[in-house]
Design a protein that fits this description.
Mean pLDDT of chain A: 92
Strand order of the largest sheet of chain A: 3-2-1-4-11-10-5-6-9-7-8
Order of helices and strands of chain A: EHEHHEHHEHEEHEHEEHHHEEHH
Largest sheet of chain A: 11 strands, mixed
Oligomer: homodimer
Number of helices of chain A: 13
Structural class of chain A: alpha/beta
Radius of gyration of chain A: 21 Å
Low-confidence stretches of chain A: none
Helix content of chain A: 40-55%
Shape of chain A: globular
CATH topology of the largest domain in chain A: Rossmann fold
CATH architecture of the largest domain in chain A: 3-Layer(aba) Sandwich
Chain lengths: 335, 335
């Protein structure tokens, strides 16, 4: 096989089957790929036995490991346990896999990626970078979305360089607009760290730095790379998710409140569906662990088969565009 | 007059008229009130001359002052300038007004409130506290929403006590649910500060502390008081605002995309309108500067007449419920 993905089937909210269905669909459509399904062999086999497509079954290699971290709070301990996640990284470091996909604990995934795949030279701290859909059908990268509660100006600059490379390849944008997210757009606003980061980014000739932006306009596509500390990024992401979810919920309730609006809802159903789908984080699939010497994707804990499938598609894009070497190039690392 | 409000007409995006129309409407409905309109006398008089209701005009006292801070970045300098905002606080400290309403710069308003109205005893740092509407028609207080980029556990506890009192009076809830907003609900998650704050709130017998909450469920009404540092609170608020605005925008576009959905939109118009109105921050009006020995309300910079009117209504509720003395009571301050 040309490309091999190590997929951690454990540690997600909806269980083995969602991972499996996503894998099968992906493998059917992508004959060049092989997936290591690392998880509950018994559950996987029970479903696979009902599938007749032997060609696809051949490209799904099961690695039986039901173990998840015994104590999520204890990251150090988790790193030394033989879990499905650590198996995935072993496949990676043994060159048996080209990328890892997991919906397991973010903190442990990040630490394990750092420990096993190693940090990239010149990069101080890895980060989490989800792709967020906008109302213009465009997408932007938000980072850090939760790996580093606190940050330094240099980290933000490292992340800018990497996300810039990701945006060029995955979003197909020649000159991505890179913004620092702040509590105001005025130059004097924000913490010492963000002030320093702004100075660094203004100096950087390879980055199209567009200044401070507030979270308000991001979903309208105001930038391609939105930089922030992991604490703020995480709050933004979950606020956005909650706002959309609850707005849609209330609208649905109000549409069902009268006969006339019910008819209206029926006729305008397609518009709702399209809107919800466009802004659904599941349609884009996963966050990247960036700053490590490997392709590591983190799926949302609540991912369903659609989310996992889209995460696999993102990995495919990254692999086929040789993104890791492009990033090393941008960072001036010998490849 | 029983109640007097000093209203800063300057420093907002939409200008004098929105403040004026809101004041006139409010005064018409509330014969017990007097408003000091501190701003551009010429503009105010031009409109007032067209109004026939002399009784209302008598209760709108114009204080001519066009000045706004000459340099917003320089808070210290701004505090010593004779601006419309400082005039409002002079009316307050001279006991000519019972409350201040302004849409001017947050940082300056906070500093001026602290300097002129003074901090409440036992309270380390004032904060901004907007009321946020939920999809259940309930509301919750979010604080700090931007006054203190960084916080200490003790500040969060102070704010919890004050917001708790506000919630009892303004939201009419006997035992408000107080939550700390965090990047995860697990007990071990978050910064040192939030861990310490959790310990303090768990010990406090007068607070119904309900634990860590993520931003995701707030709009579903998961708590009555949401506590967070000003940096995170500000990002949350603007993310929520942006998500709703952009979701609605996309939905509108999709509804206009076909003949059928256009008809559907027409029939379900009422449901959209209700939904947008319920979640519109303008329907609730203003944030409070809390922790100072006065009632100080901060309207959104982009407030229109509806927003200002609702801010005035909030102030009315606070005044008529004697909230400041209730807070002092809760804090064990002699009144």
């Amino acid at each position: 096989m040309k490309y091999k993905i190590a997929f951690d089937f454990n540690g997600n909210d909806l269980g083995t089957l969602e991972c499996l269905y996503a894998s099968i669909q992906f493998l059917k459509e992508n004959p060049d790929y092989l997936i290591y399904a690392v998880g509950n062999e018994e559950e996987i086999i029970a479903v696979l036995s009902q599938i007749k497509d032997n060609e696809v079954k051949k490209r799904l290699l099961i690695v039986n490991n039901l173990a998840v971290p015994s104590d999520k709070k204890n990251v150090r301990k988790s790193l030394h346990e033989k879990t499905s996640m650590s198996d995935c990284f072993d496949l990676l470091t043994n060159k048996e896999a080209d990328a890892v996909l997991s919906a397991g604990d973010s903190g442990i995934l990040l630490s394990m990626a750092t420990l096993k795949a190693k940090r990239l030279d010149n990069v101080a701290r890895p980060a989490f970078m989800p792709i967020v859909p906008t109302i213009n059908q465009s997408k932007f990268f938000l980072l850090d979305a939760g790996a580093n509660l606190e940050t330094k100006a240099e980290y933000l600059q490292d992340w800018a360089i990497i996300a810039n490379a990701f945006a060029k390849v995955l979003l197909k944008i020649d000159n991505p607009r890179v913004a620092l997210i702040n509590i105001g757009t005025e130059d004097y606003k924000g913490t010492q760290v963000i002030q320093e980061a702004q100075a660094l980014l203004k100096e950087n000739q390879n980055i199209n730095y567009v200044g401070f932006q507030e979270p308000r306009d991001l979903l309208a596509g105001s930038c391609d790379v939105a930089l922030i500390d992991g604490y703020g990024g995480n709050l933004m992401l979950k606020s956005t998710e909650g706002a959309i979810k609850n707005f849609a919920k209330l609208l649905k309730k109000n549409l069902l409140a009268s006969f006339i609006t019910k008819i209206g809802a029926l006729l305008s159903k397609k518009a709702f569906k399209t809107t919800a789908e466009v802004l659904d984080y599941r349609s884009v699939g996963a966050a990247w662990v960036i700053g490590v010497n490997a392709l590591v994707a983190k799926a949302h804990g609540a991912s369903d088969r659609k989310a996992f499938y889209n995460a696999l598609k993102q990995i495919k894009l990254a692999l086929e565009n040789d993104i890791l070497n492009k990033i090393k190039n941008e960072l001036g690392i010998d490849v």
